[in-house]
Amino acid sequence: MLDGLGRPAEVLYVDDGSTDGSPGRLDELAKRDGRVRVVTLLRNSGQSAGFAAGFRAAEGEVVVTMDADLQNDPADIPRLLSHMDEADVVNGVRANRNDSFVRKLSSRIGNGFRNWMTGESVTDVGCSIRAMRTRYLRDIKMFRGMHRFLPTLLRMEGARVMEIPVNHRSRRHGTSKYGIGNRMFVGLADVFAVRWMQSRNVRWEARERPREGGGPETGA
After folding, report:
1. Is the pTM of this model over 0.85?
2. pLDDT per residue over 30-46, tens digit each?
3. I need a labelling partner for 147 at 20 to 30 A (CA). Which of 120, 172, 193, 219 fits?
4. How does residue 178 score in pLDDT terms, banded at 50, 70 and 90?
5. 180: domain CATH number?
6. Boundaries of domain holding 18
């Protein structure tokens, strides 16, 4: 897949303190392909921490994120990248979602509430496949749970955000740890925190006046 992108690329795996043998398999992948890198968190720290570690380690100008459960389709990556001349963040919107009714309902309720509270219009913030310019990722602080607000946080930094439909496949590995019960109260606190950040966000543009005489003199 990387060869078909027509540009230099790397694959950065972030292992969130796995105990299922994943680290060994990832190390083998890295040995076989120099474009593969592995970042291992010393203990299970959650999705926001995983994203933060990956963003810090990434070396390219654009980062594309994907979950490890294989519900995202790597074939969508070229389409995401093809829109980077129009936006700084290209967010995927899962078309024909292969999830349970409860999971889809909780996602719709969560998206609607977050958009209402933050004045946003992000259709599917739970979709993890998105392309983002790395320079904006350097400036955001990934508190726990903030992965659900990535498009909003990046827009606060001045990034242009757009959305495109992407494929969605049935879960092949792992089990979902999210649902209405364990999202509701934490999600409420998170959305109020982001709303506060929006209200206190400071952005500016500045121009420095040229020095008289072309700059300071230097002596021998």
Report:
1. no
2. 999 999 999 999 999 98
3. 172
4. low
5. 3.90.550.10
6. 2-199
pLDDT-based confidence at residue 220 (cuts at 50, 70, 90): very low
Count up the domains in the chain and report the number.
1
Cα(77)–Cα(64) distance, integer angstroms? 7
How far CA 163 is from CA of 52, 59, 100, 153, 212, in Å, comes to 22, 24, 23, 15, 48
Q: What angle do CA 141, 38, 35 make, to 5 degrees?
A: 110
Asked if the structure places residue 204 within a domain, the reply is no
For residue 218, being part of any structural domain is answered with no
| 102-157 confidence digits (pLDDT tens) | 777 777 888 788 888 888 889 888 888 999 999 999 888 888 888 889 999 999 99
Selection from 38, 47, 42 nearest residue 18 by Cα: 42
Instruction: Quote the CA–CA distance of 74 and 219 in Å, as a whole number.
Output: 59
Distance CA 122, CA 132 (A): 15
- Own/partner contacts of 203-209, CB < 8 Å, gap of 24 or more, are 203/156, 203/158
* Amino acid in position 30: A
Owner of token pair 């076989």: 32
d(CA 152, CA 118): 8
State both tokens at 181: 């019960």
Identify any residues that bridge with 91 across adjacent strands, giving them in sequence order.
Answer: 130, 163
The backbone torsions φ and ψ at residue 170, rounded to the nearest 5 degrees and listed phi first, read -65, 145
CA 57, CA 51: separation in Å to the nearest integer? 10
Asked if the structure places residue 206 within a domain, the reply is no
**CA atoms of 169 and 96, how far apart (whole Å):** 9
Q: In this structure, what token pair is assigned to residue 47?
A: 């999705």
